[in-house]
Structure formats: structure tokens, C-alpha cells
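User: Design a sequence. Structure:
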């Protein structure tokens, strides 16, 4: 209950702008400005209790308390390591980032890329921090974490051995911004060891809030060069690297002076005419500032003598500074991977670049309610969270002349690194996209097959024929859900390139204008998880959760005593006794006596609290008892619920699967969304996520009570109520 309240509070904060880079969330509720001033006032250097200078902050296994790698570690401040420590000296450069004993080269490559863009660097490393002016042993950094920016405070006690930093350090040994940045990122992820192993693109995203694409250059799509040009025009960050086959190849230099296992930046993509024929060129930068490509189109190569002076001027030829040109054909031949991090509009400061339109949503998969698994799981697939994207405008300049709407979909699962300590793997995730805007027969081709590659489950597309027809009621709506009647009789028009156990799955698509439903899921059903879904589109697009609007519609006729059947009256008199009123104790006794005689339903029996809730719902004179007409109304209601329960007990087990609860509630007159459904399953389902009859009735009675209470207190049709503490407690205690 408390965690649910915390989640709702975070949602309210985001509605007020908290979580943006300009108004970051205070990580661990630590406010840098307040803590800084307190330290200055007290004259004491800051010591961070949330990430203490202790063994547990280092790690749990290879960096655990008994590891040889942590033997002799002493935490020291920079002022204890050199006479004149600097936070940043003469600007942040690649030489400020030298790897230590921690296997986080992926992170350091991303940090190195930060040094190429001073504006982005300033968003992550707030300026005006130093070891001289107002020094108090406290520093702070900002990271994008799963949909929001967080401001992370650290003290400057760093792990050392023999008076040397254990992890990242500067070549000169006197600059400490990178070491403190690494410490702050370790704090966010639980400990230093949790940073071991990763992908540079993860760092790109956490330093920019952007969305990342990865291309294998041995399988480069036909128009990748134009994708690179478009990405550069949109201000995206591009990186490339050469794979290594063993640790011995790390930073090995090839015969043409390319460095293996090293992160490069792509800074340009242009086309020139070489001896009258068009040639595509790529400009690349080595963050080292030296060791440049010596092949065709390198500095001083003969190819430059055969293009016009105008084209030379346009390309801004580079000197010996680590930046060089090479042909696109050589680029895809010699490099292994291209990574594109597409930035959000707020990250871009230049007016010379375009802007992506972007939307992001937080969602959850919960066992028993919204963890439906992939399309292979027909019984549960439609219970997954659903989102709709409306593509209205086609691209201005399609790369291959074919019209359509280009957009990116990224599905990211949360908190994967923090699970390392618990030895838990990431879930296998992916998504499918369905068209919902057409009501004519559509012809297209697709099928799927599964295979294993590098111990990862991969999900690929092949081809076959399918027809579909989408009902009209789904068009233009975001307050409905696609049920199995729609999803299971059509094929997806697009899907993620794989279902894979990685932090994020991201793919680029181009589809005709229209409405499309995105269904994110784990590969297997019944897996808990929290995710971020992001949609970036070249043109404006409307994206929203595809979810029912919460509501209730219960038609009950008012009756008088004369409308009650005489046989029912006699039964009531036998139960109620001389006072002709039924108390909660009597109600529970008679209900349990009736349901215990039925062999077609399973029940643990109605509880006294449920009996009291039933009376509270129907008791009109606040006598805390039920009269004849009130009891008749309740009895009719329970009979109706029994019929619905039996309809949804598809296997005749006497219980109902929690995945059936949404449709069963709808049949009873209640429309609930995924968040409410998750709360219902948590409270009313058993260990096998089955709901017995008394739990089913109790849930519907509680729902009706809550709806009536809300409507009684709502001001107009505002959709909100306001309570003081006493009112809240009196209502919640029911």
C-alpha cells in the first residue's frame, strides 16, 4: 500500500515538471544545495551515509569484502592524494578518463563522448564545482534514469590503494571529475561492481535521455548512410567501434591505424564527386586526439586531389587532431558496430538541427494481471499493457523515395544492474505493433520463428499470408483495449527485431499514416517487471496508453415490500428473527451456509469484514443491518455475480483465473484499467493467481462501494475529491 502511494506521488511530481533536467529528482532525497551550505556552516567535510566509504559500496563478489581486488583499499579525498587537486582543468578531455581495475570500459567510452559536447557535459556535470571555492567535500551529478533525471550527491572519498585511485583516473592524476562521476553513477546503480560489463549506448542514454539504435555493420541496411545523415541533421550522437575477439586485442592498432575495442565518434556524413562519380564519405573522430586512419581519404591521401575546391571547402578538411574522413564502403568494412543516440528536443541547444517528436510512458508487468507474455501465449497475450500511436504526417524526404512515417520504438526494463547482487538476469523483452485504423480487409505477409544465439532467445520475421479486419469501434479511441478477439485473429504489422534479455530493445520503423497499437511484453508470461516505453517520430505523432476509462454502470430497480416474493419473505423472517433485520454476523452465517452446499464453486467462506461491507453498501438508514428489501437486493446481486463467475470459470475448477477478472468485472458493470486490475489481483487472488467465489463477490462489492463513495464526494464532474485526515481515515478504515 505504501509503495503504491509512493508511485502515485512520483506520478504527481512528474505532472508538475519534477524529473526534467532543469528540475531533477533528488536521489535518496538528498538536496545538494542544502547539504553544501550545512557543511560550509559547520566547517565539516561532507560524509555520505547513503553511499558510505565502506566495502559494501565497492561490491559483493569480485569486489566483495574478501576479494583480492579490494585488499588494502583505503578511501581518501583528493586533497589527501595531491597538493593541488582540480575538478576540471582546462576543460574536460579524453585524457581525464583512464580505466582502473573496474571492468566498466563501456561507461568510460560514453564519458569520453561527453567531452566532445560541452553543452551535454554541463547537463551531467554541473559547472562551478571545485576544490577551492566553497569546497566542502561534496559534489553532485545528474543522470537520466528510466524516464526521469536524478540529481546524485556524493562525497569525495574515493577508493585507493598505495595512494593511487583504484578505478577511473586522469592521466595527470590531478583532475577528479571523472572519478567522482563514476562514483555517483555507482551510487545510482547500487555499488561499483554493478557497473562491470555493459554497452556504451547505455551510458549515452543515461547521459542524454536519448533513445539508442544499434546497427551491425556486416548486416547494414541498404540506406544506412542516409540514416546517418538524417541522424546528424537531428543532432543525434553517433559512435562506432571495432569488435575484439579476445582481451588481448583491446586497443590493438591495425595496419591502417584503427584501434580495436575502442569507441570512436561519427561527426559527419557527406557525398562528393570523385573523378566524376559520387562517393559517400564518413567523418570519424578518435577521442585520443591522435592515431588516425591512413587508408583512402585519410589526411594527405591522393583522393583529395580529384574533387573540386568547393567540395573540399564544404567538407572542412581536418588536420592531425584525431578526426579523419574515410569512404562509407571502408567504414562498413573495417568497423563492426554503429550506435546512434537520438536526443530529446530539450537536450538540443542549436537551432541548426531538427527535432524528434517524442513520448514516454511507464508501465508494469504483473503476474496474474498484466504479464501476458508474447503472442505465443494466446490465453494471456492481450492482457499486456497497450499503447496507441497515431501517425498523421509522412516524412518530408523519404530515404528511398517510398512514402511513410518514420518512428522509433524503445522498450526499456528498469533496475537491471541493481539485480546483479541478487544474481538475477534481465527478462527477455520485445514488442509487437498492430494496425487498428482500418476496417477494410488488409493483405500483408509475416510469420515468425525462434532460435537461440549466444544463449539469447531471438525472435525473427519471415513471410506468409494473413488477412485481418479491425472493428470500427477501435478507431480514434484510447479508452478501449484490444482483446483476444482482435489481437489473436490478425498478425502484427511490425515487431521488435528480437526478443532479447537486454536493458532495452529499440527498432526503427516506417509505416503508412494511421493508428497502431504497441504491445510490449516479456517473452514468457507471468514475469514481473517495470518498463519504460518510448516513441520518437520524425513528424508529430500522438501517443497514449490504450486503456479503458474507469467507470461503473449498474442498473438496479427500487423495490418495495409488496414486490418481494412471499416465499422469500418467509425465508427472510426465519433468518432475521423477531427484529426483522439481518446483522453482519447473521449475514455471513447464512451466506456461508448456502455456498458450502455447492460443489461447483470453491470458497474459503465470507469473512465478517465482507459482511460488514455488504451492509454498508446497502444500508440506507445507517442501522448497520439489512431490512427485507435491502437483503433482497443483495441476494439478487449475489445470484448475478454467481452466474458471471461460472461463465468465467472456463476450466470448471470452481475458481476463476485472475486474467479473467477484467472481463468478469466488465460484465458485472465495472470498467477498470490495468492499474486497478493489478490492485485487485494483489488483494484478492491466491498464490496460484486464482480467485474463488467469495473473493470475487467481495471484490465487486468493494468496487461498488468505492465508486459510490467517490461520486458522493466528487465536486461536479471534476474526477477528483478532497479529504482532510479525519475524513480519509473514516472512509479508508472500511
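Assistant: Done.
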Amino acid at each position: 500500500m505504501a509503495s503504491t502511494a509512493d508511485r502515485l506521488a512520483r506520478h504527481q511530481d512528474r505532472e508538475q515538471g519534477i524529473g526534467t533536467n532543469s528540475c531533477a529528482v533528488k536521489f535518496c532525497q538528498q538536496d545538494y544545495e542544502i547539504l553544501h551550505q550545512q557543511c560550509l556552516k559547520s566547517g565539516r567535510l561532507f560524509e555520505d551515509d547513503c553511499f558510505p566509504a565502506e566495502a559494501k559500496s565497492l561490491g559483493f563478489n569480485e569486489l566483495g569484502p574478501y576479494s583480492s581486488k579490494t585488499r588494502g583499499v583505503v578511501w581518501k579525498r583528493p586533497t589527501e592524494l595531491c597538493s593541488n587537486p582540480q575538478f576540471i582543468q582546462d576543460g574536460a578531455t579524453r585524457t581525464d578518463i583512464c580505466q582502473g581495475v573496474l571492468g566498466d570500459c563501456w561507461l568510460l567510452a560514453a564519458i569520453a563522448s561527453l567531452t566532445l559536447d560541452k553543452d551535454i557535459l554541463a547537463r551531467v556535470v554541473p559547472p562551478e564545482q571545485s576544490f577551492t571555492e566553497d569546497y566542502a567535500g561534496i559534489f553532485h551529478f545528474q543522470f537520466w534514469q528510466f524516464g526521469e533525471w536524478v540529481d546524485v550527491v556524493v562525497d569525495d572519498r574515493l577508493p585507493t590503494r598505495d595512494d593511487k585511485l583504484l578505478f577511473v583516473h586522469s592521466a595527470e592524476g590531478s583532475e577528479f571529475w571523472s572519478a567522482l562521476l563514476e562514483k555517483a553513477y555507482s551510487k545510482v546503480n547500487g555499488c561499483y561492481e554493478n557497473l562491470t560489463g555493459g554497452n556504451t549506448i547505455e551510458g549515452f542514454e543515461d547521459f542524454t535521455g536519448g533513445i539508442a539504435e544499434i546497427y551491425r555493420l556486416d548486416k547494414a541496411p541498404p540506406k544506412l548512410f542516409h540514416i546517418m545523415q538524417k541522424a546528424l541533421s537531428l543532432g543525434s550522437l553517433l559512435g562506432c567501434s571495432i569488435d575484439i575477439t579476445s582481451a588481448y586485442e583491446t586497443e590493438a592498432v591495425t595496419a591502417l591505424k584503427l584501434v580495436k575495442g575502442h569507441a570512436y565518434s561519427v561527426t559527419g556524413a557527406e557525398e562528393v564527386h570523385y573523378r566524376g562519380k559520387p562517393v559517400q564519405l564518413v567523418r570519424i573522430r578518435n577521442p585520443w586526439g591522435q592515431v588516425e586512419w591512413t587508408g583512402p581519404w585519410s589526411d594527405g591521401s591522393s583522393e583529395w586531389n580529384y574533387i573540386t575546391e568547393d567540395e573540399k571547402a564544404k567538407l572542412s578538411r581536418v588536420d592531425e587532431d584525431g578526426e579523419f574522413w574515410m569512404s562509407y564502403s571502408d567504414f562498413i568494412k573495417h568497423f563492426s558496430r554503429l550506435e546512434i543516440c537520438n536526443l530529446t528536443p530539450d537536450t538540443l541547444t542549436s537551432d541548426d538541427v531538427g527535432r524528434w517528436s517524442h513520448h514516454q510512458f511507464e508501465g508494469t508487468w504483473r503476474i496474474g494481471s498484466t504479464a501476458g507474455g508474447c503472442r505465443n501465449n494466446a490465453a494471456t497475450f492481450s492482457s499486456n499493457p497497450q499503447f496507441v500511436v497515431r501517425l498523421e504526417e509522412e516524412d518530408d524526404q523519404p530515404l528511398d523515395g517510398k512514402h511513410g512515417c518514420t518512428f522509433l520504438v524503445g522498450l526499456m526494463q528498469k533496475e537491471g544492474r541493481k539485480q546483479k547482487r541478487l544474481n538475477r538476469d534481465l527478462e527477455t523483452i520485445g514488442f509487437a505493433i498492430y494496425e487498428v485504423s482500418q476496417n477494410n480487409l488488409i493483405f500483408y505477409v509475416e510469420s515468425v520463428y525462434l532460435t537461440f544465439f549466444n544463449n539469447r532467445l531471438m525472435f525473427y520475421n519471415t513471410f506468409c499470408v494473413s488477412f485481418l479486419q479491425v472493428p470500427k469501434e477501435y478507431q480514434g479511441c484510447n479508452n478501449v483495449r484490444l482483446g483476444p478477439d482482435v489481437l489473436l485473429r490478425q498478425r502484427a504489422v511490425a515487431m521488435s527485431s528480437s526478443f532479447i534479455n537486454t536493458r532495452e530493445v529499440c527498432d526503427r520503423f516506417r509505416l503508412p499514416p494511421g493508428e497502431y497499437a504497441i504491445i510490449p511484453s516479456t517473452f514468457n508470461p507471468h514475469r514481473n517487471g517495470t518498463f519504460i516505453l518510448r516513441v520518437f517520430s520524425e513528424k508529430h505523432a500522438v501517443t497514449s496508453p490504450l486503456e479503458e476509462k474507469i467507470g461503473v454502470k449498474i442498473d438496479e430497480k427500487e423495490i418495495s415490500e409488496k414486490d418481494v416474493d412471499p416465499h422469500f419473505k418467509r425465508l427472510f423472517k426465519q433468518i432475521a428473527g423477531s427484529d426483522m433485520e439481518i446483522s453482519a454476523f447473521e449475514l455471513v452465517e447464512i451466506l456461508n451456509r448456502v455456498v458450502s452446499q455447492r460443489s461447483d464453486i470453491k470458497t474459503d467462506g465470507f469473512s465478517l469484514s465482507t459482511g460488514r461491507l455488504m451492509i454498508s453498501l446497502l444500508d440506507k438508514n445507517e442501522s448497520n443491518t439489512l431490512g427485507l428489501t435491502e437483503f433482497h437486493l443483495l441476494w439478487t446481486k449475489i445470484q448475478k455475480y454467481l452466474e458471471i463467475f461460472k461463465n468465467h470459470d472456463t476450466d470448471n475448477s470452481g475458481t476463476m483465473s485472475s486474467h479473467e477478472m477484467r472481463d468478469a468485472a466488465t460484465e458485472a458493470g465495472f470498467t477498470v484499467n490495468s492499474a486497478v486490475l493489478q490492485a485487485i489481483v494483489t488483494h484478492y487472488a491466491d498464490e496460484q493467481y486464482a480467485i474463488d467465489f467469495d473473493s470475487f463477490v467481495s471484490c465487486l462489492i468493494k468496487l461498488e462501494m468505492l465508486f459510490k463513495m467517490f461520486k458522493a464526494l466528487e465536486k461536479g464532474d471534476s474526477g477528483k475529491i478532497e479529504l482532510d485526515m479525519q475524513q480519509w481515515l473514516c472512509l479508508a478504515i472500511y
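The first strand starts at residue 25 and ends at 26. The two ends are 15 Å apart (CA to CA).
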